[in-house]
Amino acid sequence: MSTTTLKRKKMLSLTALYSVVILGLIWALLPIVWMVLSSLKTQAGMFTMPPKFFFEPNFDTFKYMFTKGGFLGYLTNSLIASVSATVISLVFGALGGYALARGNFKGTKHISFWIISTRMAPIPAVMLPLYLLFTHLNLVGTMTGLIFAYTTFNLPFALWMMMIFFREVPEALEEAAMIDGCSKFQAFWKIAVPTATPGLVATGILCLMFAWNDFMFASIFSGHSTQTIPVAASMLITQQGIAWGQAMATGTVIITPMVVAGLAVRKYLVQGLSMGAVK
Fold this sequence. Notes:
The chain is mainly α and 279 residues long. The chain has two domains: 3-58; 62-275, MetI-like (MetI-like fold). It has helices at 3-39, 43-46, 60-67, 71-102, 108-120, 123-136, 143-167, 171-179, 184-195, 197-213, 216-221, 229-234, 244-264, 266-275; strands at 237-238, 241-242. A hairpin with a 2-residue loop joins strand 1 (237-238) and strand 2.
């Protein structure tokens, strides 16, 4: 086979590969782009045919939502619940993950499997027991209850992830620190945690995404004053129809923080997700 034929086949293969990637990107991004553009249009402008991609932005929907629509309260509730649950999950996940990664006690593998199995369980399967427990503790309808609900599913995931990341940290670094006079906790805090920072960031972003986007927990455990953005979005669908302008604007607000956070820490996110990769 000639060199020209090989080059032609390689070019065709690359062309086909890039075509598939581009089509996949269009398929994934077009609905998001359409949503963002629609949130900046008037109600009539959303359904104009053919659709317009270049137009004068209209921010009346956002102004109404944040002034008269009470959207700021939903946004505040989402921020408090998701950030608080993420911080709690990271703190205890890092401590527990380190203990599982460095512990020499019997049954470590069984404990690790039991922890991750609680995260693998379907949410509806644990909803009733959690609701009964939270009702007994007067946590239903409170922000504290919502944070605990998010932490219930985030913490096992954080423990499992941090255990994997800490196993990638060479124990020799901590042993050297303890030889120099550090205690076990100091070696953990000053050596293991900074070394596993990419994994910590990756775990935090994934936990934050789960809590921020959650609808099921929020719809059951939140009250009138603690409802989050996904719950507010569901209330835009009524028997009278769908408030398309507010729905598009709400969706834009939901995805924007996660996109910004992902782009801001993308380097740590890639490093963190690759730390526990099988070599």
